[in-house]
Known about the structure:
Elements (H helix, E strand, L loop, with lengths): L2 H5 L2 H22 L5 H23 L7 H26 L4 H7 L2 H13 L7 H18 L10 H24 L9 H24 L21 H7 L13 H11 L3
Helix pairs in contact: 2-5, 3-4, 3-9, 4-8, 4-9, 5-8, 6-7, 6-8
Amino acid sequence: MSRRSALVPWQAKFAALALIWGGSFLLIKIGVSVLAPVQVATLRILTGTATVLVLAAMTGTRLPRDPRVWKHLAVTGFLLCALPFTLFPLGEERVSSALAGIGNATTPMATVLFTLLMIPADRLPARKIGAVAVGFVGVVVITQPWQSAGRPDVLGFTMTLVAGASYGLGWTYLRRFLRGEDLGGLSLPAGQLVMASAQMLVIVALWWLFLRSTVPAPWSTHAPADGSVLPVSSRSSSSAPSGPGSRSPCSSTSCGRSERRSAPR
Protein backbone atom coordinates (compact mmCIF):
# COMPACT_ATOMS: atom_id res chain seq x y z
CA MET A 1 0.00 0.00 0.00
CA SER A 2 1.37 3.40 -0.96
CA ARG A 3 2.00 6.09 1.65
CA ARG A 4 -0.51 8.41 0.00
CA SER A 5 -3.22 5.72 0.12
CA ALA A 6 -2.44 5.01 3.77
CA LEU A 7 -3.04 8.68 4.66
CA VAL A 8 -6.68 8.48 3.49
CA PRO A 9 -8.92 7.26 6.35
CA TRP A 10 -10.84 4.08 5.62
CA GLN A 11 -14.04 5.90 6.50
CA ALA A 12 -13.47 8.30 3.60
CA LYS A 13 -12.78 5.41 1.24
CA PHE A 14 -15.92 3.63 2.41
CA ALA A 15 -18.02 6.78 1.97
CA ALA A 16 -16.67 7.32 -1.54
CA LEU A 17 -17.40 3.71 -2.45
CA ALA A 18 -20.94 3.96 -1.07
CA LEU A 19 -21.50 7.17 -3.03
CA ILE A 20 -20.28 5.63 -6.28
CA TRP A 21 -22.17 2.36 -5.92
CA GLY A 22 -25.29 3.79 -4.29
CA GLY A 23 -25.52 6.74 -6.66
CA SER A 24 -25.84 4.39 -9.62
CA PHE A 25 -29.35 3.37 -8.51
CA LEU A 26 -30.50 6.99 -8.47
CA LEU A 27 -29.01 7.55 -11.93
CA ILE A 28 -30.75 4.41 -13.19
CA LYS A 29 -34.05 5.80 -11.85
CA ILE A 30 -33.45 9.00 -13.80
CA GLY A 31 -32.40 7.03 -16.88
CA VAL A 32 -35.56 4.93 -17.10
CA SER A 33 -37.62 8.13 -17.31
CA VAL A 34 -36.27 8.77 -20.82
CA LEU A 35 -34.88 5.39 -21.90
CA ALA A 36 -36.15 1.82 -21.90
CA PRO A 37 -34.48 -0.48 -19.35
CA VAL A 38 -32.65 -2.42 -22.05
CA GLN A 39 -31.32 0.86 -23.45
CA VAL A 40 -30.07 1.91 -20.01
CA ALA A 41 -28.28 -1.43 -19.60
CA THR A 42 -26.72 -1.27 -23.07
CA LEU A 43 -25.53 2.31 -22.58
CA ARG A 44 -23.93 1.49 -19.22
CA ILE A 45 -22.14 -1.58 -20.54
CA LEU A 46 -20.93 0.01 -23.78
CA THR A 47 -19.54 3.09 -22.03
CA GLY A 48 -17.92 0.90 -19.38
CA THR A 49 -16.38 -1.31 -22.05
CA ALA A 50 -14.97 1.65 -23.93
CA THR A 51 -13.48 3.09 -20.73
CA VAL A 52 -11.87 -0.17 -19.61
CA LEU A 53 -10.47 -0.92 -23.07
CA VAL A 54 -8.85 2.52 -23.20
CA LEU A 55 -7.31 1.98 -19.76
CA ALA A 56 -6.17 -1.50 -20.79
CA ALA A 57 -4.46 -0.07 -23.87
CA MET A 58 -2.78 2.63 -21.78
CA THR A 59 -1.44 0.05 -19.31
CA GLY A 60 -0.45 -2.51 -21.93
CA THR A 61 -2.98 -5.08 -20.73
CA ARG A 62 -3.73 -7.89 -23.17
CA LEU A 63 -7.04 -9.62 -23.54
CA PRO A 64 -7.19 -13.39 -22.94
CA ARG A 65 -6.27 -15.61 -25.89
CA ASP A 66 -7.52 -19.01 -24.74
CA PRO A 67 -10.93 -19.82 -26.32
CA ARG A 68 -11.88 -21.78 -23.20
CA VAL A 69 -11.39 -18.67 -21.10
CA TRP A 70 -13.61 -16.66 -23.44
CA LYS A 71 -16.40 -19.22 -23.05
CA HIS A 72 -16.32 -18.74 -19.30
CA LEU A 73 -16.11 -14.96 -19.71
CA ALA A 74 -19.28 -15.12 -21.79
CA VAL A 75 -21.05 -16.69 -18.80
CA THR A 76 -19.63 -14.28 -16.23
CA GLY A 77 -20.24 -11.34 -18.56
CA PHE A 78 -23.90 -12.30 -18.61
CA LEU A 79 -24.18 -12.96 -14.86
CA LEU A 80 -22.12 -9.97 -13.72
CA CYS A 81 -23.09 -7.41 -16.35
CA ALA A 82 -25.84 -8.10 -18.87
CA LEU A 83 -28.41 -9.72 -16.56
CA PRO A 84 -28.18 -7.47 -13.47
CA PHE A 85 -27.70 -4.30 -15.53
CA THR A 86 -30.99 -5.09 -17.29
CA LEU A 87 -32.95 -6.29 -14.25
CA PHE A 88 -32.18 -3.25 -12.10
CA PRO A 89 -33.74 -0.75 -14.58
CA LEU A 90 -36.69 -3.09 -15.08
CA GLY A 91 -37.18 -3.26 -11.33
CA GLU A 92 -36.78 0.49 -10.85
CA GLU A 93 -39.71 1.08 -13.17
CA ARG A 94 -41.80 -0.38 -10.32
CA VAL A 95 -39.87 0.37 -7.09
CA SER A 96 -37.75 3.21 -5.76
CA SER A 97 -34.00 3.47 -6.21
CA ALA A 98 -33.60 2.98 -2.44
CA LEU A 99 -35.36 -0.39 -2.60
CA ALA A 100 -33.25 -1.34 -5.61
CA GLY A 101 -30.14 -0.67 -3.53
CA ILE A 102 -31.53 -2.87 -0.77
CA GLY A 103 -32.18 -5.60 -3.33
CA ASN A 104 -28.54 -5.41 -4.35
CA ALA A 105 -27.66 -6.39 -0.77
CA THR A 106 -28.55 -9.98 -1.62
CA THR A 107 -25.14 -10.33 -3.29
CA PRO A 108 -23.24 -11.54 -0.19
CA MET A 109 -26.07 -13.89 0.74
CA ALA A 110 -26.12 -15.37 -2.76
CA THR A 111 -22.33 -15.67 -2.74
CA VAL A 112 -22.39 -17.76 0.42
CA LEU A 113 -25.22 -19.98 -0.82
CA PHE A 114 -23.71 -20.58 -4.25
CA THR A 115 -20.31 -21.25 -2.69
CA LEU A 116 -21.89 -24.01 -0.61
CA LEU A 117 -23.45 -25.49 -3.75
CA MET A 118 -20.67 -25.03 -6.31
CA ILE A 119 -17.49 -25.11 -4.22
CA PRO A 120 -18.27 -27.48 -1.33
CA ALA A 121 -14.56 -27.80 -0.56
CA ASP A 122 -14.59 -24.22 0.73
CA ARG A 123 -15.76 -24.56 4.30
CA LEU A 124 -17.67 -21.54 5.51
CA PRO A 125 -17.69 -20.55 9.19
CA ALA A 126 -20.95 -20.65 11.09
CA ARG A 127 -20.99 -16.87 11.47
CA LYS A 128 -21.24 -16.42 7.68
CA ILE A 129 -24.11 -18.86 7.45
CA GLY A 130 -25.79 -17.04 10.33
CA ALA A 131 -25.31 -13.74 8.53
CA VAL A 132 -27.07 -15.19 5.48
CA ALA A 133 -30.02 -16.20 7.66
CA VAL A 134 -30.25 -12.72 9.16
CA GLY A 135 -30.07 -11.16 5.70
CA PHE A 136 -32.88 -13.40 4.48
CA VAL A 137 -35.05 -12.31 7.40
CA GLY A 138 -34.35 -8.69 6.49
CA VAL A 139 -35.50 -9.25 2.90
CA VAL A 140 -38.71 -10.87 4.15
CA VAL A 141 -39.37 -7.93 6.48
CA ILE A 142 -38.90 -5.44 3.64
CA THR A 143 -41.13 -7.40 1.26
CA GLN A 144 -43.90 -7.69 3.91
CA PRO A 145 -45.69 -10.69 2.35
CA TRP A 146 -48.20 -10.70 5.22
CA GLN A 147 -49.64 -7.32 4.20
CA SER A 148 -51.81 -6.59 1.19
CA ALA A 149 -51.21 -2.83 1.25
CA GLY A 150 -48.14 -0.71 1.83
CA ARG A 151 -45.62 -3.30 0.71
CA PRO A 152 -43.29 -2.73 -2.26
CA ASP A 153 -44.21 -3.99 -5.70
CA VAL A 154 -43.41 -7.70 -5.50
CA LEU A 155 -42.37 -8.14 -9.13
CA GLY A 156 -40.17 -5.04 -9.20
CA PHE A 157 -38.45 -5.85 -5.91
CA THR A 158 -37.96 -9.48 -6.98
CA MET A 159 -36.17 -8.27 -10.11
CA THR A 160 -33.71 -6.34 -7.96
CA LEU A 161 -33.21 -9.36 -5.70
CA VAL A 162 -32.45 -11.59 -8.68
CA ALA A 163 -30.09 -8.96 -10.06
CA GLY A 164 -28.18 -8.82 -6.78
CA ALA A 165 -28.09 -12.62 -6.55
CA SER A 166 -26.69 -12.87 -10.07
CA TYR A 167 -23.57 -11.06 -8.85
CA GLY A 168 -23.08 -13.73 -6.21
CA LEU A 169 -23.56 -16.51 -8.76
CA GLY A 170 -21.21 -14.83 -11.24
CA TRP A 171 -18.36 -14.41 -8.77
CA THR A 172 -18.76 -17.97 -7.52
CA TYR A 173 -18.70 -19.27 -11.09
CA LEU A 174 -15.58 -17.22 -11.70
CA ARG A 175 -13.84 -18.68 -8.66
CA ARG A 176 -14.67 -22.23 -9.68
CA PHE A 177 -13.84 -22.21 -13.38
CA LEU A 178 -11.19 -19.48 -13.74
CA ARG A 179 -9.37 -19.77 -10.43
CA GLY A 180 -6.15 -21.08 -11.99
CA GLU A 181 -6.04 -18.61 -14.88
CA ASP A 182 -3.63 -15.69 -14.82
CA LEU A 183 -6.04 -12.84 -15.59
CA GLY A 184 -4.34 -10.04 -13.75
CA GLY A 185 -4.83 -6.34 -14.21
CA LEU A 186 -7.69 -5.27 -16.44
CA SER A 187 -7.72 -8.45 -18.50
CA LEU A 188 -10.62 -10.03 -16.61
CA PRO A 189 -13.00 -7.04 -16.48
CA ALA A 190 -12.15 -6.08 -20.05
CA GLY A 191 -12.96 -9.58 -21.31
CA GLN A 192 -16.21 -9.73 -19.34
CA LEU A 193 -17.34 -6.34 -20.61
CA VAL A 194 -16.50 -7.22 -24.22
CA MET A 195 -18.67 -10.33 -24.00
CA ALA A 196 -21.44 -8.44 -22.19
CA SER A 197 -21.36 -5.72 -24.87
CA ALA A 198 -21.82 -8.31 -27.61
CA GLN A 199 -24.74 -9.83 -25.72
CA MET A 200 -26.44 -6.47 -25.11
CA LEU A 201 -26.08 -5.39 -28.73
CA VAL A 202 -27.96 -8.52 -29.75
CA ILE A 203 -30.59 -8.00 -27.04
CA VAL A 204 -31.21 -4.34 -27.87
CA ALA A 205 -31.41 -5.15 -31.58
CA LEU A 206 -34.04 -7.83 -30.95
CA TRP A 207 -35.88 -5.47 -28.61
CA TRP A 208 -35.97 -2.78 -31.30
CA LEU A 209 -37.06 -5.19 -34.04
CA PHE A 210 -39.95 -6.27 -31.85
CA LEU A 211 -41.00 -2.64 -31.17
CA ARG A 212 -39.86 -0.94 -34.36
CA SER A 213 -43.41 0.17 -35.15
CA THR A 214 -43.37 2.45 -32.09
CA VAL A 215 -39.62 2.98 -31.55
CA PRO A 216 -37.95 4.79 -34.48
CA ALA A 217 -34.40 3.62 -33.64
CA PRO A 218 -32.62 1.56 -30.96
CA TRP A 219 -31.28 4.79 -29.44
CA SER A 220 -34.59 6.69 -29.45
CA THR A 221 -35.70 8.27 -26.19
CA HIS A 222 -39.15 8.89 -24.82
CA ALA A 223 -40.30 12.01 -23.00
CA PRO A 224 -41.45 11.63 -19.39
CA ALA A 225 -45.18 11.98 -18.89
CA ASP A 226 -44.75 15.13 -16.77
CA GLY A 227 -41.83 16.59 -18.70
CA SER A 228 -39.37 15.97 -15.86
CA VAL A 229 -36.38 13.65 -15.61
CA LEU A 230 -36.40 13.53 -11.80
CA PRO A 231 -37.33 10.28 -10.07
CA VAL A 232 -40.94 9.89 -8.98
CA SER A 233 -40.00 10.09 -5.29
CA SER A 234 -38.25 13.43 -5.86
CA ARG A 235 -41.14 14.90 -7.84
CA SER A 236 -43.89 13.88 -5.43
CA SER A 237 -42.73 16.13 -2.61
CA SER A 238 -42.36 19.21 -4.81
CA SER A 239 -45.49 18.76 -6.93
CA ALA A 240 -47.99 17.54 -4.32
CA PRO A 241 -51.31 19.43 -4.20
CA SER A 242 -51.16 22.37 -1.78
CA GLY A 243 -54.76 22.43 -0.68
CA PRO A 244 -57.93 20.38 -0.45
CA GLY A 245 -59.18 21.80 -3.72
CA SER A 246 -55.95 21.48 -5.60
CA ARG A 247 -55.65 19.31 -8.68
CA SER A 248 -52.71 17.04 -9.31
CA PRO A 249 -50.22 18.71 -11.68
CA CYS A 250 -49.74 17.49 -15.20
CA SER A 251 -48.28 18.88 -18.36
CA SER A 252 -50.56 20.71 -20.75
CA THR A 253 -49.94 18.12 -23.43
CA SER A 254 -50.85 15.12 -21.27
CA CYS A 255 -53.86 16.90 -19.74
CA GLY A 256 -55.06 17.87 -23.18
CA ARG A 257 -54.83 14.30 -24.37
CA SER A 258 -56.77 13.08 -21.33
CA GLU A 259 -59.53 15.65 -21.82
CA ARG A 260 -59.84 14.89 -25.51
CA ARG A 261 -60.11 11.16 -24.78
CA SER A 262 -62.78 11.67 -22.13
CA ALA A 263 -64.86 14.15 -24.17
CA PRO A 264 -68.05 12.65 -25.72
CA ARG A 265 -67.96 12.20 -29.49
